[in-house]
């Protein structure tokens, strides 16, 4: 999708893909396939149902569950209603889950079948929670998602949405205190999926034959963000309920995966599987990785076994994942793993010196490092801006209404474009 064709927001992204590839598969989950046209209708129903529940624009809703196509229905359906999805890390203990759901003041909580017991345990601690809906049953006292969704019309909700409206709220780990919700706008996410812009690098060029694997958890930008990348480009996204190294190999082999994102620890689990060297990786084009450093020995082993292209993504949740992508210089299907001499890529005052392709396109496209997104927390929203820079120079949007910012006002951010 070219810059001139770029949608105004992520809700428009779905409408665009319906016109281009309506009958093609948008998502596949455990044998269930959903076309772009059907996905559009289902997300319309979600948006209309949220409106019927009294959920207002810019309200938060919470999702406590593992990966599924239901999550992406809820995510994009919420966006169409200008409601903010806030997935919860299901690996946390009950008190931590309760804190996050209470912090966002979510009136609605969607719960996966594996997390019903945890939801029951914390329900009494959530004074703002009005409705709990189970995505796959398992709790007769709560509504079932499919019946809840299908009770509303599939007509387009036609809610006004600004590029600077928050689209998703992802919580940080809280290593220096309580978790804080990074508020990522439509503009942030559009900047993510269009990495490279006019000089799009090869790894972010997509065709109708590409198949993406969503194996990282959706409460992380590497799961939810990566799931939006394939949707934006009209490619099929295959969703794994949770990361399982043996199943990743199955997906690559049987679902004909061409691109995927994993963290280095997951890459190690996959490459060390006994049958990893017997799997056919000939369709795999690129493996993207990030979120932690990767040992050189592990990267070399992955190059030898997978034989595909590798791209390191540097960033964090507050910058909508990727700030800078670096493509390792290897020859296609060359298992030697040799890197070319380092090139220096300059962006603003930041310098990097690593073995890479002549592919500093993200840096030129962004002009300056993306300003971190504002964060939502129990004590207010922190304004995050590079020292000495104005809101305009930091790429900040106009200030958002105070009604939903608790005790402070902040801004949504995106990297500037050429």
What's this entry about, in short?
The protein has 418 residues and is an alpha/beta fold. The chain has twelve helices and 19 strands.
Describe this structure in words.
With 418 residues, this protein is an alpha/beta fold. Helix 9 (245-254) crosses helix 10 (264-271). The strands form four sheets. It has an eight-stranded mixed sheet, with helices on both faces. A five-stranded parallel sheet has the order 4-3-5-6-7. It has a four-stranded antiparallel sheet with strand order 8-9-18-19. It contains twelve helices and 19 strands. Mean pLDDT is 80; it is low at 331-370 and 377-418. The chain has helices at 10-21, 36-52, 69-80, 94-103, 116-122, 145-150, 186-193, 221-232, 245-254, 264-271, 296-306, 361-366, and strands at residues 25-29, 32-35, 60-64, 84-87, 108-111, 131-134, 143-144, 166-171, 181-185, 211-214, 236-239, 259-262, 286-290, 309-316, 321-327, 343-347, 350-354, 375-377, 380-382. It folds into two domains: 31-185, ANL, N-terminal domain (Rossmann fold), CATH 3.40.50.12780; 187-366, Rossmann fold, CATH 3.40.50.
Chain-wise SSE layout:
Elements: H1 10-21, E1 25-29, E2 32-35, H2 36-52, E3 60-64, H3 69-80, E4 84-87, H4 94-103, E5 108-111, H5 116-122, E6 131-134, E7 143-144, H6 145-150, E8 166-171, E9 181-185, H7 186-193, E10 211-214, H8 221-232, E11 236-239, H9 245-254, E12 259-262, H10 264-271, E13 286-290, H11 296-306, E14 309-316, E15 321-327, E16 343-347, E17 350-354, H12 361-366, E18 375-377, E19 380-382
Parallel strand pairs: 1-11, 3-4, 3-5, 5-6, 6-7, 10-11, 10-12, 12-13, 13-14
Antiparallel strand pairs: 1-2, 8-9, 9-18, 14-15, 16-17, 18-19
